[in-house]
Amino acid sequence: MSAIALRRRRRIASHDWAEAQDRSVRRRVGAAWALLFWNTLTFTSGSLLPIPSHLGKAITQGTLPIALLIALTVNPRLKLRPNVFLCLVCLLVLDTVLTCVTAPHLGTIFRTFRLAEFVATLWLLTPWWDRDDMLLLWCQLRCLLVALGSVLLGLLISPGQALNGSAAAQGGRLAGAIWPMAPTQVAEYAGVAAGMMIMLWLARKLSGRATLAGVIFAAGLLLLTHTRTALIGLVAGTLVASLSLFTVSARVRKSFASGAAIVTVGIITVSSVVTTWLARGESVKGLTSLTGRTNFWAQVLAEPRTKFEEIFGFGLSNASINGLPIDSNWLSSYQQEGLFGVAVCIAILAWLFVAAFFQPRGIRRGLALFLTTYVLIASFTEDAFTNASTYLLHLAVAASLMAPLMRRDDLYATRED
Question: Is 229 left (phi over 0), alpha (psi -120 to 50) or beta?
């Protein structure tokens, strides 16, 4: 009996140790992910915080090496999970390294080094891609909600500054006032957060009350930004992801029926309001030129370049042409990483969609489809995943959701061996 009791106590102690290890891992992985997210934020003048612009930029850029160090503490043996997604992203890094070697420029070298650090940190976190609790997804959702919470706080403290922004062209569009965020950036966070919460609710991973409060909060901020791309991405991503669950979830089928009825009533009653909101007071010329973006795109295509620059680009920059933002993942990729970079970007999205197609139907596949679809739509009018950005984090989460599952006990047993 004493031997049986001793074995039982050992099993309990081993279980308690595993739980303590798991809590420590979750905290450190969450901290590393939060720092990666913070690193993607920009900082410009006009914040409510009394922080000089150069100091704010140093803070955001300084979070990246800290994230890398924390990732090393959680993965000191450098165990990496092989995956196609990060291998393709490494090709983008290799592309930018080639441009640094052939045409060294301090800014390009610095941005290339940051991208390499960013991707290295993602590699170090790959052993936790296959967790059944979707750890990285919850980390991303928390980061999005915290960022949106700061936007709401800025709106409550200084509504005039939050709704006017730092540029006259953004008048009336919600921007970050405490930590400077462009209206499009706020809309991205709101759209992705709302879509993720809807999908989690459809899969019964999130309660109805929490989902209702979260979606109202995120959707309200999204509407205040007057950003059409984020709204289209939210609707299209949710539709594609829900269709993947249509045959396996009664809640999805009921939601489709309710959604169809609401859309029908909305078209009949408030169609004029919706049209006015989408137009944002722009002329027909402004709408057809995507608020003037196509004018900048023509300049990118007309830029003189050598054969090498056509294939591999000019190197990482602030994604602008003659001081004007490019605002397109595909054109900025062509400008910075050439045709090779554009091909890699296509391969990344194609692989994620193909991998999702072969995944079993379920919430992981649905969430991966939502994130990939959203990034695909946003990539046409936003600088997306050619550099260290939240869009690249979205795709990393999508790739992690399609990794074969491993139970936590098996994972720790593997590490002990």
Answer: alpha
Tens digits of residue pLDDT in 193-213: 999 999 999 988 999 899 999
Name the 3-class secondary structure at 60: helix
Question: Is this structure's pTM higher than 0.70?
Answer: yes
Exposure class string for 269-293: b at 16+ Cβ within 10 A, else e: eeeeeeeeeeeeeeeeeeeeebeeb
316 neighbors 101 (Cβ within 8 angstroms) = no
- The span from the CA of 46 to the CA of 352, in Å, is 38
Compute CA 270 distance to the chain's CA centroid, rounded to the nearest angstrom: 32
* Closest alpha carbon to 311 in 293, 334, 278, 329: 334
DSSP letter (8 states) at residue 1: -
Backbone phi and psi for residue 398, each to the nearest 5 degrees, phi listed first: -60, -45
Q: Using an 8 Å Cβ cutoff, are 189 and 142 in contact?
A: no
Residue type, 412: Y
Position 292 pLDDT exceeds 70? no
Residue 4 has pLDDT above 70, yes or no: no
Q: Coil, helix or strand for 381?
A: coil
